[in-house]
Amino acid sequence: MKNLDFDWKPLALVPLLALAVLPFIGSGSTWLTLTVAGLAMGMIIFIIASGLTLVFGLMDVLNFGHGVFIALGAFVATSVLGGMADWTGSQELWRNFVAVLPAMVVAMLVAGAVGLAFERFLVRPVYGQHLKQILITVGGAIIGEELIKVVWGPEQIPLPLPEAMRGSLFIGDAAISKYRLIAVAVGLLVFGVLAWTLGRTKIGLLIRAGVQDREMVESLGYRIKRLFVGVFVVGSALAGLGGVMWGLFQQNVVPQMGAQVNVLIFIVIIIGGLGSTGGALIGALLVGLTANYTGFLVPKAALFSNIALMVAVLLWRPQGFFPVTNR
Amino acid sequence: MLTRLLSNDFPRSRVLAVLLLAVLLGLAFAPFVFPGVKALNVAAKVLVFVVLVASFDLLLGYTGIVSFAHTMFFGIGAYGVAIASTSMGPTWSALGVGLLVSLAVSFLLALTIGLFSLRVRAIFFAMITLAVATAFLTLASQLSDFTGGDDGLTFKVPALLSPAFEFAEEPFLGVSLDGRLLCYYLLFVVALVLVLALLRIVNSPFGRVLQAIRENEFRAEAIGYRVVVYRTTSSILSALFATLAGAMLALWLRYNGPDTSLSFEIMLDVLLIVVIGGMGTIYGAAIGSALFLVAQSYLQDLLKFGSEAAAGLPWMAALLSPDRWLLWLGVLYVLSVYYFPTGVVGRLRAAANPKAASH
Question: Sorted alphabetically, which InterPro entries does this protein's record hold (chain B) (predicted)?
């Protein structure tokens, strides 16, 4: 049983961190607000990072162009939501969901389709060559960002939250914004589906086996290559979904957003251990919490909190929390 | 004499030798041959980039390390000169202090990144350097009291190097003999010396070990070389040369800001130039920089022409807009990684010596 030797230490870091900063913040309700906000932000970061941990960790493709799919998803969402102003402007929550849902689906479809082309034309010739992968995907990122500028223009575009998703709920004195709750739900859904697919289905079994010993699985008659293309497409589609969530969180999108979030998601998947969905989730939650706590306690240091966190984690576990492979 | 100067690493291709000589002579006589302010600025930028790209090639081409923090060291050099000149006035001692301090900072940073990244997997290095460089860029824009924030710092250089200083009344061959010209030739000499020094480094026994590590890290370690030490030394050396290139840039522009020396676009340019010129050849940096910067400076004019010609087709016009020049460079870059992996220098050498090509 896999669960018997589950490594609980990284998981324990999340509540430990939250409890450790409590005395510094003082007020309990402020702490609750910050903690919930941090966890929710972590969930959004997890959604944007989840695709990359598949591509990086399972396929061993150093994709520096992943941010393009995030930006693409966000821009597609601006177009879809822009065309559904009646539904986003409604005060009824269910109508808002009806607007956001197709935006997410279309963003995932477009990002997945572009991911398929990206894999075919850029990544496929350079499997196994890490240096070239970095160079090629950086080139792909430049082209993608410029093409987004051609289609949507180089300017920042607003992506307002639908009416009923704005504002906050109150638990005592602690304010919790509604959108963050939605983000937590979507993040948990993504995590659940990924963990279930990878851990409990035959496709997940084949992917994990293919990562361990590709030739063995191929000799059993399974087409690992096709399976891995599928992993790349799913990774890109998840990036598109993450782009929608991130764009709605920021409430505006810029063509450069892909390059901006690259750093954040790299930190998350390094901390988590490449390829581990659970590691990425814990890494993202820690990043979200530290960002919110330092933003409150020492705003000037907020930017470096991520890097300090990464350094600390890597000094403890150089391979990240849950290393999937020994590459 | 020439053997010693070039560290016994000759161009090994007649065409390449001619090209290199053309670049060298072109840069040496640029103020007299290519009139106009824009041309001289392009020539000075080529001088800076030759050093910057050659220093990056030491890391990427010779040691096989992908770093995205190279512009950070470039920026440190530029900020060192800018900050010292702003706070101490336009003196030579300010330049000296700025240079020394920035070299020391670069040394310590490169050492820290190098030693730290040794503990993690090799492929993490690229990502970690990207994160560090981004943090540094934001830091530079935030510390506005010190760095001038997003506006940057405009400063004066010693009188001898400023345009106001004229050492001859009469212009010579239509070029006024002023401090600007002296500054250009100072950069020229510094760039030449630094590139020859880099050539010396990569052709030393040390450089050979770096190449061995690039080819097969495991074997190099097995032979008895401490890969860790060599990698760290290589990244420190490369950082120091990049710092000097940054100081050259600041001296020429008499200005420095985050976009001028730290932006990620410069990092992309450097990557592009290394690939186009040829990885693992210091000469590639010279050829690549000259080609790239001239193209970059005049490509936008060409695209403007193209987009006006395609005005009838809105999509085509949008693709050919001068603002989209980076798109075309990106396409060029991807194509050159695929079909031109050894770059200009590698191709020319292979053409000149077909047997030795598959070394």
Answer: ABC_transp_permease, LivM-like
